[in-house]
Each structure stands twice: as C-alpha cells, then as structure tokens.
C-alpha cells in the first residue's frame, strides 16, 4: 500500500498514525531496543532509508541520544 494513501485512509477513520521513527522512539522507551541511533543508522546504510538531517537530529534528541 502506498504510505500516503494508507496514512490518509487511517486518518479518515480517526486512527492515530505513527511512522517508523515514532515506532523506534517507542521501542526505546519500552526498552525493546537500546539505541534509536544504531537502528536508524543501519536503516540509512542498508535499506536506503531517507531522513533529513534536521529530523535525524530531532529524533535523536527525543530519544535522549547524541548526534
């Protein structure tokens, strides 16, 4: 499913939408992963995951991790 269409459909149904970065933050908060930065870097390097430098920094700050 196209991500944009899926998000729009979910929002039309009143569902809360969480992207991958939000899931990673929640996983760290629940101690499922020790580091958002390491997983995010793997995604960027191995899966061609794209994230702006500003969002990258914001996510790491939200995870209480350094850039």
Helix content: 55-70%
Q: What about the largest sheet?
A: none
Mean of pLDDT: 93
Q: Assess the beta-strand content as a share of residues.
A: under 5%
Give helix and strand order, one letter per element, not per position. HHHH
The termini sit apart by: 32 Å
Q: Report the uncertain regions.
A: none
Helix run count: 4
The structural class is mainly alpha
Q: What overall form do the CA principal axes indicate? A: globular
Number of strands: 0
Keywords:
67 residues; mainly alpha; 4 helices; 0% strand
Can you walk me through this structure?
By secondary structure, the chain is mainly α. It has one domain. It has four helices and no strands. It has helices spanning 3-12, 20-29, 36-46, 53-62.
């Amino acid at each position: 499913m196209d991500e944009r269409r899926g998000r729009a459909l979910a929002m039309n149904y009143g569902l809360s939408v969480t992207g991958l970065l939000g899931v990673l933050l929640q996983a760290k908060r629940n101690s499922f992963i020790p580091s958002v930065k390491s997983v995010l870097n793997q995604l960027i390097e191995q899966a061609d995951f794209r994230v702006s430098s500003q969002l990258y920094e914001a996510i790491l700050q939200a995870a209480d991790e350094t850039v």
